[in-house]
Amino acid sequence: MNVSRHSDKPDLDSRAHIESFVDRFYQRLLADPQLGPIFTEVAAVDLAVHLPRIKDYWCKLLLGEQGYRRHTMEIHRRLHRRRPLQPEDFERWLATFTATVDDYYQGQRAERAKHLARSIAANMQQSLC
Ligand code: HEM
């Protein structure tokens, strides 16, 4: 395990860091040829609405903030009916998430974020696919 005390990467331990993380994660998701169109064409998300929700979601999971109160599974179930989410989509989503964390963040909350993303993606995939 890397226990360097001189890392200049921050942890995902504040709303400011989580918001920057989500912006960076979505830059990659939206530019991805496999996943980008699911956001831009299938769901046609309004980023001005969607990104603040994703930021609240991760602030809830990592910081215990109570801002996010929506039915994430139901939203993906609806999406899945329009464009079936495949195992390779989950793999790509998770690889993008993990790479974005590892490129910019380090620490306990960063590890927790990757762990949560992996287990939520596995649950979601199991219940949809
Ligand atoms: C194959 C993998 C995934 C794809 C392609 C995907 C795609 C999407 C899309 C297109 C939306 C917008 C849906 C809409 O507004 O109609 C969305 C919403 C969301 N996704 Fe995912 N997703 C994936 C996996 C995940 C996972 C594993 C998580 C959690 C760890 C997650 C968390 C969220 C959240 C919090 C929202 C916001 C829902 C809301 O409006 O409150 N997604 N996703």
UniProtKB/TrEMBL annotation:
Keywords: Heme, Iron, Metal-binding, Transport. Heme binds at H76. Pfam families: Bac_globin. GO terms for molecular function: heme binding; metal ion binding; oxygen binding. The keyword Thylakoid does not apply. The keyword Iron applies. This is Group III truncated hemoglobin. It comes from Kineobactrum salinum.
